[in-house]
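User: Hi! I'm working on a homework problem where we have to compare a predicted structure to a textbook description. Could you give me the structure for the chain below?
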Amino acid sequence: MRGVISVLKRISLLLVCLNASAWLFAQIPSPALLVLNKSDRTLAVVNPSTLEVVARVATGEDPHEAEASPDGKLAFASDYGGPQGDLHMISVIDLADLKPLPPIDLGALRAAHGLEFAGGKLYFTAEGSKAIGSYDPASGRIDWVMGTGQDRTHMVKVSRDGRQIYTSNVSSDTISIFDRTSQNGWEQTLVPVGKGPEGFDVSPDGKELWAANSHDGTISVIDIASKKVVQTLNIPTKMANRLKFTPDGKRVLISDLRSGDLVVVDAGSKKEIKRLKVGSGAAGILVQPDGSRAFVAASPDNQVAVIDLKTLEISGRISPGKEPDGMAWVSGRK
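Assistant: Happy to help. Predicted structure tokens:
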């Protein structure tokens, strides 16, 4: 009899655990906004409809940039630590169970920063090693590394067809354009730009790359086909941090880390059309995939400002944690 009671207790406990897990999974919104909090070392999961934080999960040290897998199962956070630091990890978060998983050990590659998921792989910069690489979640290994030879290779983007990779090299004042020449071969072209290029983006049509030069208040417009700067825009900023196109390609958003402004530029006329004060400092930018809103991290204020892209006004604020910065969007879980 005692044995039967013991079995029944175990079954009851198992059912409680399963129900709790199902309840937790149900609480994760779909879609979801992910926000990294640098000082807290956490990833906040935000319901974009209510702007409420529904969960926080621990990350590694000094998390800076976030990315999510297309199936919505995993999130990644680069553990940065600065170009002279010795951090060599990328944090991994299970979004179903809301728990940290074993991190990706980059070995000799230091100071991971920029992240981009493309073609089933996670591309990353290793700023302290002047390199970029890719991690294959299917095999659980780093399957490609390429040196840039540039100082502070900071952010990374991959073209839709996977045949080009772009990086900003802050202290070398260049943008790298890598062209795939064979299955495993790549050729790098260095494009000189302004002083301190950091945030950059590629236009939705893939024709232009805009780089925000953090040290001289300019924007370098690169024609990707010719790999040359075709125009330099004087859009005054004290320290441009991130630059993002809206999905329709009509506007460009630039965050200013020192002034706390979000600068809105018309992509066609290449003229400033609006300047919003989002806080005492403006850092990470994420544009909602449908183009209706943008989220801008006001890091010193421990807030994320929500921008209505129709009215170009602040429509709300999120309090995700201490020193928010990098963000990612989870469209849905499969």
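For your comparison, note the following. The radius of gyration is 21 Å. The longest strand covers residues 52-58. Good luck with the assignment!
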